[in-house]
Write a structure and sequence with these properties.
This protein has four domains: 97 residues; 119 residues, Tetrahydropterin Synthase, Chain A (2-Layer Sandwich); 52 residues; 39 residues, no CATH class. Helix content is 41%, strand content 28%. A hairpin with a 2-residue loop joins strand 4 and strand 5.
Length: 328
C-alpha cells in the first residue's frame, strides 16, 4: 500500500490539451507531486512549455516529445538532487503556453483623439479595427505578463493591449502630416505604419504582432456635417454653382409633392429661383456686350418684348422672364 501511494506521487507523462479558446498560459497541476526521472513531456504544435524551478525559468521546450533526464535538462542538473530515492529527479512547475494566432482582436478609441489637421485645423478622430498576435517568447511573457498564475487568458491582456495601441496611435497621428481626408482614403497603408510602430511594444511583452487593420476612421457627427458641406462646395467649384446644384436637387422633390397648392407653389418657386440663377448671368453678359451702334440697337429692340408680369425687357423668343421667372 505504501509503495502504491508513493508511486502515485510521481508524474510520468506531462501534456496539455487546450480545451478552450483564449487561454494563453496554463500551469500543469503539480501539487504534492514530483516528476519521474525519465518521464515523458509532450509539447504539441502551437504550444511551448517552460520548466520553472524556485521561481525561475530553467528551460523552454518547443514542440516535440521529450524524455526528462539529466541529458536534456542541464540547467536543472546543478540545482536538483538526481540521486533521490524512487528515481524522482526534481519537483518543479511546468507551464504550457499557447502559440496559436489570436485572431479578431478588436481595438478602438473609446473617446475621440484630437489631432491638428493641415486642412481642417484641430479635429477629433475616432478609429477602430482588428489585430492578431501570438506568443513568441514564453520566457519574456512569463516574467513580464502571466507570472505564476494558474491560467492566463486573452481577456486578461486585452485592456492593456488596447490602451497601448490607442496611446501609440495618438502619438502617430500627432506627428503625421497626412490630412484626415488622405488618412481615411489610405487606411491599409495607415494600418501598416501603425503595425511597424507597435511591433517593438509587442516584442517587449513576449508577443509577435501578426496583423493590424484599420477598419474605419471617422469624425464625430457634428464635425462630419461640416466636412461634408465643405466637400460639397469644393465639388461645385464655387458658392454660386453650389446654390444652383441645391436648387436643381430640390425641383424633383417639389414635383413629387402632389399634395395641393402648397406643392405647386414650392415647385414654382424652385423653378423661378432656378431660372434666375441660370439665366441672370447670361442676361448680364448680353447687356455688357450690347453694341453702341444706334442702327444695331434699333434692330435689337424689334426683337425684344416685355414681361407680362414685371415689365422687364426680354428676347422675343424667351419663354420665361430672366428677372422674375414668369412663363411668357
Amino acid at each position: 500500500m505504501l509503495g502504491e501511494f508513493l508511486h502515485k506521487q510521481f508524474i510520468s507523462v506531462i501534456q496539455w490539451n487546450e480545451e478552450e479558446d483564449g487561454l494563453l498560459a496554463y500551469r500543469y497541476p503539480m501539487q504534492d507531486m514530483e516528476i519521474e526521472n525519465g518521464g515523458q513531456l509532450t509539447v504539441r504544435e502551437s504550444q511551448m512549455a517552460a520548466f520553472i524551478n524556485e521561481g525561475k525559468i530553467a528551460d523552454i521546450f518547443p514542440p516535440g516529445l521529450y524524455t526528462l533526464n539529466t541529458r536534456n535538462l542541464p540547467i536543472l542538473t546543478d540545482v536538483m538532487n538526481w540521486s533521490k530515492d524512487f528515481e524522482s529527479p526534481f519537483k518543479s512547475d511546468v507551464y504550457f503556453f499557447s502559440t496559436r494566432l489570436q485572431i479578431d482582436q478588436k481595438w478602438g478609441t473609446a473617446n475621440p483623439i484630437t489631432i491638428r489637421d493641415k486642412e481642417f485645423g484641430a479635429v477629433r478622430l475616432r478609429a477602430y479595427g482588428i489585430y492578431s498576435y501570438r506568443i513568441a517568447d514564453p520566457r519574456t511573457f512569463f516574467t513580464e505578463i502571466s507570472g505564476t498564475r494558474e491560467t492566463y487568458y486573452v481577456s486578461d491582456l486585452e485592456g492593456q493591449l488596447r490602451n497601448t495601441i490607442v496611446s501609440r496611435m495618438t502619438d502617430i497621428f500627432a506627428g503625421s502630416d497626412i490630412s484626415f481626408l488622405d488618412m481615411a482614403a489610405s487606411q491599409a497603408e495607415l494600418g501598416k505604419n501603425i503595425a511597424e510602430q507597435m511591433k517593438p511594444v509587442f516584442t517587449g511583452l513576449g508577443l509577435d504582432l501578426d496583423q493590424f487593420v484599420v477598419e474605419n476612421i471617422s469624425l464625430p457627427d457634428e464635425l462630419q456635417k461640416i466636412v461634408d458641406q465643405r466637400i460639397g462646395v469644393g465639388m461645385a467649384g464655387d458658392l454660386g454653382r453650389y446654390t444652383q446644384f441645391e436648387t436643381a436637387q430640390s425641383i424633383p422633390v417639389a414635383a413629387a409633392n402632389t399634395g395641393g397648392a402648397a406643392g405647386m407653389g414650392v415647385g414654382l418657386g424652385a423653378g423661378v429661383a432656378m431660372g434666375q440663377a441660370m439665366f441672370a448671368p447670361h442676361a448680364a453678359t448680353a447687356v455688357e456686350q450690347a453694341p453702341a451702334d444706334n442702327t444695331v440697337a434699333a434692330d435689337a429692340s424689334e426683337a425684344t418684348k416685355f414681361c407680362i408680369e414685371c415689365g422687364k425687357p426680354l428676347p422675343a423668343r424667351a419663354k420665361f422672364c430672366a428677372s422674375c421667372g414668369k412663363p411668357q
